[in-house]
Design a protein that fits this description.
Blueprint (H helix, E strand, L loop, with lengths): L10 H14 L4 E4 L3 E3 L9 E7 L6 H13 L3 E6 L4 E2 L27 E2 L4 E2 L6 H18 L3 E4 L2 H5 L23 H17 L4 E4 L21 E3 L2 H12 L7 H9 L7 E3 L14 H6 L15 H11 L2 E2 H11 L3 E5 L5 E2 L1 E4 L27 H5 L5 H18 L7 E7 L4 E6 L2 E6 L6 E8 L4 E7 L17 E2 L1 E2 L15 E7 L3 E7 L2 H7 L6 H14 L15 H19 L25 H8 L6
Parallel strand pairs: 1-4, 1-15, 4-8, 8-9, 9-10, 10-11, 11-13, 13-15
Antiparallel strand pairs: 2-3, 5-7, 6-7, 14-15, 16-17, 17-18, 18-24, 19-23, 20-21, 20-24, 22-23
Helix pairs in contact: 1-2, 3-5, 9-10, 10-12
Length: 622
């Protein structure tokens, strides 16, 4: 469904047309669904009929190898969605019915009710059977060695772990729910064997479990007595967002409830967070963007007209500058150690990507009898993002900025995660991830000037990412050239005397429905280099310009300029060279721009102090 045309796309088309988009948005991993052969297209590939065959709908095995090789050449890892939790019920073309010379009690599947999943209409494996273990373990080795996949996402792990398959089971965290006669010990042993085998074949493989129960030890190594997965999907998070969007007004959103839902995971067991998936947006249900903006997405996304309050809210929350972006960003920043964007509205950053951002704004609907076998909602509308006068480009730009922020500061891999403020009255959440300070203002109307936020380290802070910046479709209300100096709070080492249990604080401007991320300035490096550094958002703008023109200079054009950006870039580059020659200085390249100053031209080192001050005094309209 990655094609812009209403048809099934091929592996080669995906490799050539979609993978470059994923790479451009700074993702590092692609997760592919429905690779194993399956008879019913609308099953998402979950009703597997041939475990050792590539789905022929999208091409040949050589075509799939081309896709994997192309991804690797772009620096992308490739994970495969493997379905070992159940199999198609088909007898004619499926594994069901094969007895491999054994009695029915010793076949691939359990007999009776234990061998049938009543909600999925599929057969359930007998993991205690030696032949089943050989079959499934050989299957994993086949995909790793023959197609060079970098790991797997195991589908339906909750169904495997328990005899009740998680059906009508509200897991509360009570350990009796995990370790009892309801636990399928044979399945647990198989998963331990599977992870051991994968790691022996490919030590740096990534293996993810789709588990909603939160089984203790699921994400710990087998050598520690764990089941051996690297990550668990944080499946409760998208359900929480859908509940809020469907059932609560903006004023009813609870900051504490959101914070607890996003951080509800076991220490040292890593999770992949995601805001929505095909489960939330299939067959008539809506994506987050469509929940937020609904029918106005058809008529109100043009930049040639003023945004309506609905569109303004939708873009903000979707990215965080207005609403949907806020949802995606706080999910990424607080929800786990990796981030998944799914089916066109998200992708993965450990980061994982199932097809890429904003390719389908409405909903997913596979061809089926109920819709006349139509492909209309089973495709990716890439033109929406590519059309310059449509606001979808802002949402995509922020998606790219989120990932660039992690590339620069590696906050997802940091074990430091502290929520210091869940302000219910003002609808503000403040937390630290790594050495970054995140300030989310979910209030629909209120802007707070001089809002006090706590932090760990003393010093000077600047803006690293601002959802309200012009390039993200925001209003540019936060100044990126402002230095925020901390003040000590209370007695050092005595948390109860600190501000929100943090030893230092600084004050910020927090507009309604925005998120601003602050980083601590390394003043010693700054003084040594004598370089004016740039923010993540500015670096992304430079990257976008390079993608379009391939050889542009490192001077950034003011977001407020009304002139042609290309002409301005050329003129400023020439002016910059003249200044350097006049000073007898050598132009130096800026390979790793740090963070800061939006709406300010970036210049190299060794400029005279009066000239720097003159540039800082300019307004965006100069």
């Amino acid at each position: 469904m990655s094609s812009s045309e209403p048809r099934i796309n091929s592996y080669r088309e995906f490799a050539d047309d979609v993978l470059p988009r994923i790479q451009a948005n700074n993702y590092n991993t692609v997760q592919l669904m429905a690779v194993m052969e399956h008879s019913y297209y609308a099953s998402f590939g979950y009703h597997v009929t041939n475990f050792f065959s590539v789905s022929s709908r999208s091409g040949t095995p050589e075509d799939l190898k081309y896709l994997v090789d192309k991804a690797h050449s772009l620096g992308l890892r490739v994970l495969m969605d493997v379905v070992h939790s159940h199999a198609s019920n088909n007898v004619t073309d499926g594994l069901n019915g094969f007895d491999v010379g054994q009695s029915s009690q010793e076949s691939y599947f359990h007999t009776g009710e234990r061998g049938y999943h009543k909600l999925w209409d599929s057969r359930l494996f007998n993991y205690g059977n030696w032949e089943v273990l050989r079959f499934l373990l050989s299957n994993l080795r086949w995909w790793l060695e023959e197609f060079k996949f970098d790991g797997f996402r195991f589908d339906g792990v909750t169904s495997m772990l328990y005899h009740h398959h998680g059906i009508n089971m509200p897991f509360t965290g009570d350990y009796n729910e995990y370790f009892s006669e309801a636990t399928d010990v044979d399945a647990v042993v198989y998963l331990m064997l599977a992870n051991s085998l994968i790691n022996n074949i490919l030590p740096d493989a990534t293996v993810i479990a789709e588990d909603v129960s939160g089984m203790p030890g699921l994400g710990r190594p087998v050598s520690e007595g764990g089941i051996g997965f690297d990550y668990r999907l944080a499946m409760a998070i998208p359900d929480k967002w859908i509940d809020y969007l469907k059932n609560k007004t903006d004023e009813e959103w609870s900051m504490m409830d959101l914070s607890c839902s996003l951080t509800n995971r076991r220490y040292t067991e890593k999770c992949i967070s995601y805001a929505e998936s095909h489960d939330q947006s299939i067959v008539g249900d809506k994506t987050i963007a469509f929940f937020l903006m609904d029918k106005e997405m058809y008529s109100g996304m043009s930049c040639l007209i003023d945004a309506s309050p609905t569109i303004d809210r939708g873009i903000a929350l979707h990215k965080v500058g207005d609403s949907s972006n806020m949802i995606h960003f706080i999910t990424m920043a607080l929800g786990g150690e990796g981030y998944l964007n799914f089916m066109g509205n998200e992708v993965t950053r450990y980061i994982f990507c199932l097809f890429v951002q904003f390719g389908h704004p409405e909903w997913i609907d596979f061809p089926r009898e109920g819709n006349g076998w139509s492909y209309e909602k089973c495709r990716r509308q890439w033109t929406l993002m590519d059309t310059d006068h449509l606001r979808y480009k802002f949402m995509n730009a922020f998606d790219r900025a989120m990932n660039a922020l992690d590339d620069k500061f590696s906050f997802l891999s940091s074990t430091k995660q502290i929520v210091s403020c869940t302000d219910e009255e003002n609808k503000v959440i403040v937390f630290e991830r790594g050495d970054l300070v995140f300030v989310f203002n979910f209030h629909p109307e209120n802007t707070y000037d001089g809002y006090k936020v706590g932090c760990d380290l003393p010093g000077k802070y600047r803006v690293a990412l601002d959802s309200d910046a012009w390039e993200f479709g925001g209003h540019g209300r936060v100044g990126h050239d402002v230095d925020h100096f901390t003040s000590p709070e209370g007695i050092p080492g005595v948390p109860e005397t600190n501000f929100n249990n943090r030893p230092n604080s600084f004050k910020v401007l927090s507009p309604a429905r925005t998120c601003v991320v602050y980083y601590k300035v390394d003043e010693s490096v700054e003084e040594t280099n004598g370089i004016n550094v740039i923010s993540v958002s500015e670096k992304l703008e430079m990257d976008a310009s390079e993608q379009k023109n391939a050889e542009e200079s490192a001077i950034l054009v003011d977001h407020g300029d009304k002139e042609n950006p290309q002409e301005t870039n050329d003129r400023d580059t020439a002016s910059f060279d003249e200044e350097l020659q006049k000073d007898g200085a050598k132009q130096e390249s800026i390979e790793e721009p740090a963070a800061s100053v939006l709406d300010k031209k970036i210049v190299g080192s060794k400029l005279d102090e009066p000239e720097v001050e003159e540039m800082e005094d300019r307004t965006p309209d100069d």
